């Protein structure tokens, strides 16, 4: 019973952390129409940033600033935001494929540098020496994990509320206007590339928060945690849930993470020994098929975006200017 | 240093072949196709299958051609692999991209191509195993061109370069001298206007996939000839090929050729300074540099 409970806590924690990243992606893709092919770079920037800032000093290792935990977490988010700013400012003025290619490139490069720059990131060994905050206060174990889950869920709710507020605000309407018809938005005096950059950085900072929480949960991060596969998983979560719908994004995260762990478990349990080596391949084919299948048969996802008419076109209704 | 330059030229020829097909698809269908590099993998593996098949059926074909490690069987396989890969590209378009294109936006295509890449790569891994293969187990000794500075070149590499240049020359003549080439360029330039002039858009799209797939197959085989064949070919080459198209300017075929060589050479030269572990990062740095200096590439037109 305790085993089941602690597994449920573990599962919900990871799924909630990933749901935060999916929400960040939803702001970029669902609401603004920006293709981020390197989610994992911003996630990883948050993870590495948080641990480098928050861990105790290690020999031959950059960092070890031992910052107060919230400061380290915010620091990780800032690192993710800076990375997004560099990519965004170079590509968002150009044709849309450039952002897709550049973000994909930064994810490959980020993983490559983290794997090789031992002085910075510990190389393949990853970053150690991080103490989970308040671990002693809860005495570790299940009680601590439950408390951390509460913290993660609180963060998820905060991000969700923030984004709900954002997309229903005039800024959210502006994002959708640019997504649907850039020329029309520009003719109303809006600056699409600047608004896109804002949305891109905000989404990436949220991914950074997700990465920071992920690294805190494991108290460790290595290049294995920032493989391109994670980008696919987060994308699949958003597409299954429904791009443009925050509730769909969160549900998609839980659904896909559940399917992923369940398929991994059943393959390791029921597949013949010789096939075990290929468990990963089979899972990737499944997730690739989910992505392609959803795009072919239900591109709007399980929970489609609800388009709101913010002003009535009927005669007599009050008409407001601006988008 | 000179060795790096020579190696870079050879890698560049493979990248060029891959980039030409990719840039055509990107220009005509307006999407970044992340599954293009998987076509190289399909090409390399189908040549492996045909090579084994022909060697078993007609043993005399297993003789190597001159000083190359390439056998007559493999040379014959290139032709078959070219056709198979071109048809696979067409099939993928029919099954996935065409449907997404009719339904959704260009960005959905980018996304679909991510999924397709993932499926192809892992299906290849399931069929052929995750390990590496070689076309020939014979060791071909490199020819020492000079001792100081030390310069080693394998006959295979010279062959690869010459063949790649020859293919590009043929492409050039087809595009600039034939009606077919004019139609292709017209569609890439302005699909609507081309249709008004009686060019069948669907035929041209099919042709682009066939040609792109064929070139990718050759690139994949040449890559396999000088390196190893593994299911990760696509993953390792997708970014350098994209970098080549961006350097050349998306849509420019000559730009893609030049871009391939520039990316290949600069990545190899950079290894003279940086530790070799960083080589996967080089294409991205090149992309960044191009975006900073000349965002539309060397020959690209401004597009939004």
UniProtKB/TrEMBL annotation, chain A:
Residues that span the membrane, as ranges: 6-27, 34-56, 68-91, 142-163, 197-220, 277-297
Membrane topology: Multi-pass membrane protein
Protein name (database record): Amino acid/amide ABC transporter membrane protein 2, HAAT family
Alphabetized CDD domains for the sequence: TM_PBP1_LivM_like
Subcellular location field: Cell membrane
Keywords: Cell membrane, Membrane, Transmembrane, Transmembrane helix
GO cellular component: plasma membrane
Pfam family, one: BPD_transp_2
Keyword Cell membrane: yes
MF GO annotations: branched-chain amino acid transmembrane transporter activity
Automatic annotation (TrEMBL), chain B:
GO BP terms in the entry: D-alanine transmembrane transport; L-alanine transport; L-isoleucine import across plasma membrane
Membrane topology summary: Multi-pass membrane protein
Keywords for this protein: Amino-acid transport, Cell inner membrane, Cell membrane, Membrane, Transmembrane, Transmembrane helix, Transport
Predominant cellular place of this UniProt entry's protein: membrane
Protein name from the UniProt record: Amino acid/amide ABC transporter membrane protein 1, HAAT family
Annotated TM spans: 6-27, 39-58, 70-92, 158-175, 204-225, 237-263, 269-293
A single GO cellular-component term on record: plasma membrane
Keyword set includes Membrane: yes
Pfam families linked to this entry: BPD_transp_2
Alphabetized InterPro entries for the sequence: ABC_transp_permease, BCAA_transport_permease
Single annotated GO MF: L-phenylalanine transmembrane transporter activity
Family to which the UniProt record says this protein belongs: Belongs to the binding-protein-dependent transport system permease family. LivHM subfamily.
CDD domains: TM_PBP1_LivH_like
Cellular compartment(s): Cell membrane
PANTHER family: BRANCHED-CHAIN AMINO ACID TRANSPORT SYSTEM PERMEASE PROTEIN LIVH, HIGH-AFFINITY BRANCHED-CHAIN AMINO ACID TRANSPORT SYSTEM PERMEASE PROTEIN LIVH
């Amino acid at each position: 019973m305790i085993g089941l409970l602690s597994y449920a806590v573990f599962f919900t924690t990871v799924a909630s952390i990933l749901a935060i990243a999916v929400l960040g992606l939803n702001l970029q893709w669902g609401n603004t129409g920006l293709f981020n092919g390197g989610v994992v770079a911003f996630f990883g920037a948050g993870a590495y940033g948080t641990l480098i800032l928050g861990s105790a000093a290690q020999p031959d290792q950059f960092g070890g600033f031992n910052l107060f935990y919230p400061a380290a977490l915010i620091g990780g988010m800032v690192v993710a935001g800076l990375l997004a700013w560099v990519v965004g400012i170079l590509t968002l003025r150009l044709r849309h494929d450039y952002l897709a290619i550049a973000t994909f490139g930064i994810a490959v490069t980020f993983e490559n540098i983290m794997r090789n720059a031992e002085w910075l990131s510990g190389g393949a060994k990853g970053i150690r020496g991080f103490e989970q905050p308040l671990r002693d206060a809860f005495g570790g174990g299940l009680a601590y994990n439950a408390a951390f889950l509460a913290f993660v869920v609180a963060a998820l709710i905060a991000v969700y509320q923030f984004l709900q507020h954002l997309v229903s605000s005039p800024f959210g309407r502006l994002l959708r206007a640019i997504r649907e018809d850039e020329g029309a938005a520009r003719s109303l005096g809006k600056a699409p590339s600047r608004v896109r950059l804002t949305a891109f950085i905000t989404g990436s900072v949220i991914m950074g928060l997700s990465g920071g929480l992920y690294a805190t949960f494991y108290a460790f991060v290595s290049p294995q945690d920032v493989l391109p596969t994670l980008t696919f998983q987060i994308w699949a979560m958003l597409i299954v849930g429904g791009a443009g719908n925050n509730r769909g994004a969160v549900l998609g995260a839980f659904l896909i993470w559940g399917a992923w762990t369940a398929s991994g478990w059943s393959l390791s349990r029921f597949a013949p020994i010789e096939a075990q080596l290929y468990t990963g391949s089979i899972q990737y084919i499944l997730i690739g098929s989910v992505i392609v299948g959803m795009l072919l048969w239900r591109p709007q996802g399980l929970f489609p975006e609800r388009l709101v008419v913010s002003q009535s076109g009927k005669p007599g209704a009050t008409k407001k200017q601006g988008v | 240093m000179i060795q790096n330059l020579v190696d870079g030229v050879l890698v560049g020829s493979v990248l060029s072949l891959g980039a030409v097909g990719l840039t055509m698809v990107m220009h005509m269908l307006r999407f970044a196709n992340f599954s293009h590099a998987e076509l190289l993998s399909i090409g390399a593996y189908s040549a492996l299958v045909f090579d084994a098949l022909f060697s078993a059926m007609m043993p005399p074909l297993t003789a190597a051609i001159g000083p190359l490690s390439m056998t007559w069987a493999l040379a014959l396989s290139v032709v078959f692999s070219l056709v198979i890969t071109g048809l696979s590209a067409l099939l993928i378009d029919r099954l996935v991209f065409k449907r997404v294109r009719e339904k959704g936006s260009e960005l959905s295509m980018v996304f679909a191509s991510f999924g397709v890449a993932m499926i192809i790569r892992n299906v290849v891994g399931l069929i052929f195993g995750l390990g590496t293969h070689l076309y020939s187990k014979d060791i071909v000794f490199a020819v020492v061109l000079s001792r100081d500075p030390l310069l080693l070149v394998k006959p295979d590499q010279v062959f690869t370069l010459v063949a790649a240049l020859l293919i590009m020359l043929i492409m050039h003549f087809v595009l600039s001298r034939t009606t077919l080439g004019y139609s292709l360029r017209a569609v890439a330039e302005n699909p609507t206007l081309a249709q008004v002039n009686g060019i069948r858009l669907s035929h041209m799209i099919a042709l682009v996939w066939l040609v792109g797939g064929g070139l990718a197959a050759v690139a994949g085989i040449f890559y396999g000839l000088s390196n190893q064949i593994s299911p990760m070919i696509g993953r390792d080459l997708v970014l350098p090929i994209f970098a080549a198209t961006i350097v050349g300017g998306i849509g420019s075929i000559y730009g893609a050729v030049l871009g391939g060589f520039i990316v290949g050479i600069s990545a190899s030269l950079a290894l003279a300074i940086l530790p070799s572990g960083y080589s996967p990062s080089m294409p991205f740095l090149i992309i960044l540099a191009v975006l900073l200096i000349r965002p539309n590439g060397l020959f690209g037109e401004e597009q939004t």
